[in-house]
UniProtKB/TrEMBL annotation:
Keywords: Glycosyltransferase, Transferase. Residues 24-183 form the Glycosyltransferase subfamily 4-like N-terminal domain. PANTHER family: SULFOQUINOVOSYL TRANSFERASE SQD2. It holds the Pfam family Glyco_trans_1_4. This is Glycosyltransferase. It comes from Paractinoplanes lichenicola. The keyword Signal does not apply.
Length: 365
């Protein structure tokens, strides 16, 4: 338990509720963050899309409008439906104003929003802010991040991401994402391959399908469809032909699926800021064949259970998976132990509280 309890306002992204099944790695990370902080004795107020867990008893201003598509067949993770931001941004500003008006009772803002408004408000909240940079330097975020540096701390999820932001004049401490080892348990392995995450073009699940077909192994896909046209065109035609789509799974079922797989395929077709799925798979003992993109190599960290190949190379991915598959229980146990030594949620908690202390001390210097 923490020796100092705080009241912390956690600001989540504007797109998806923080609930299970998780919409993606970012939402899973925020969900774990809230649970971890509360378990360590802190009072957490979650500002997130309505329907999120952990909002009971919190201010009404912290319930942001949900994304509603007039036609779900048009839904993507790269755009918003017409009129949504015109509702969401004023709601977010009302939440920030609540923090400003209650600055005497809120110790810190833990910001995970991908919109610049929380950063734009950092200097007038009267509360220090810790912002985690989960993405490459988005043009709309860079000026706000520069301006907010004197009112808290900026964290980057990988050295790769920190270096990208540094090129734009923004300095951030590196704090990798973490995995709850009590929820991502050791699995027995199996014969099939697995791919899990958001189903969007930049995650490259269609290349995982190609690689799996080259190995002759079945591929099981789990995750939320974040781009309906992409799924309809590139994934659906292969279903039932050595490819199963299981939909979005709650964390216990997802961890069980990954732990019963021979190898996880991780296929980003963009410079992935972190790659939480790599750490999650390794925590179950399951090896990972992955494209060496962005922060993926940092998460791999030279682990023998990870095979890195050039981005987009389905044949090399298939070969890496086949090399990694024949592992016994001892190797799976060692893979898990090495992953938790680097990415345990418990270890990260103490580091985060140290950053919170520094943010409070430095914010108004």
């Amino acid at each position: 338990m923490s020796t100092r309890t705080r009241t912390i306002a956690v600001i989540a992204p504007l797109r998806h509720p923080i609930q299970e099944p998780h919409a993606g790695g970012l939402e899973a990370m925020v969900w774990d963050r809230v649970r971890m902080l509360r378990a360590r004795g802190h009072r957490v107020l979650l500002c997130a899309v309505a329907g999120s867990q952990f909002q009971e008893g919190g201010p009404a201003e912290f319930r942001l409008p949900p994304v509603v598509w007039p036609d779900e067949r048009d839904a993507t993770d790269s755009t918003f439906p017409p009129g949504h931001l015109e509702r969401a941004i004023p709601a977010l500003e009302a939440a920030l104003d609540f923090i400003r008006r209650h600055a005497g009772t809120i110790d810190l803002v833990d910001n995970h929003s991908l919109h610049p408004q929380p950063l734009n408000w950092a200097g007038r909240l009267g509360v220090p802010m810790v912002t985690t940079l989960h993405t490459p330097p988005l043009p709309r975020l860079v000026p706000a991040a520069r301006a907010a540096e004197h009112h808290g701390k900026l964290l980057a999820v990988s050295s790769h991401t920190a270096a990208e932001w540094r090129e734009h004049g923004v300095e951030a401490l590196v704090m990798p994402n973490a995995v709850d080892g009590d929820r991502w348990r050791l699995g027995p392995g199996g014969r099939d391959l697995v791919w899990f995450g958001r189903i969007v073009p930049e995650k490259g699940v269609h290349v995982a399908v190609q690689a799996a077909r080259l190995t002759g192994r079945k591929l099981r896909i789990a995750g939320r469809v974040g781009d309906v046209p992409y799924f309809r065109e590139h994934i659906r035609p292969f279903l039932g032909r050595g490819v199963d789509y299981l939909g979005p799974l709650g964390q216990p079922a997802l961890a069980d699926l990954v732990g019963r797989s021979a190898c996880a395929l991780v296929t980003p077709l963009w410079p992935e800021p972190f790659g939480l799925v790599v750490a999650e798979a390794l925590a179950t003992g399951t090896p990972v064949a992955a494209f060496d993109a962005g922060g993926i190599g940092e998460v791999a960290g030279g682990a023998a259970a990870v095979g890195l190949v050039p981005m987009g190379d389905a044949e090399a991915l298939a070969q890496a998976a086949e090399r990694l598959v024949p592992v016994g229980r001892h190797h799976r146990q060692r893979t898990r132990a090495e992953a938790l030594a680097r990415f345990s949620l418990d270890h990260r908690a103490a580091e985060l509280e140290t950053v919170f202390d520094l943010a409070g001390a430095d914010a108004w210097v």
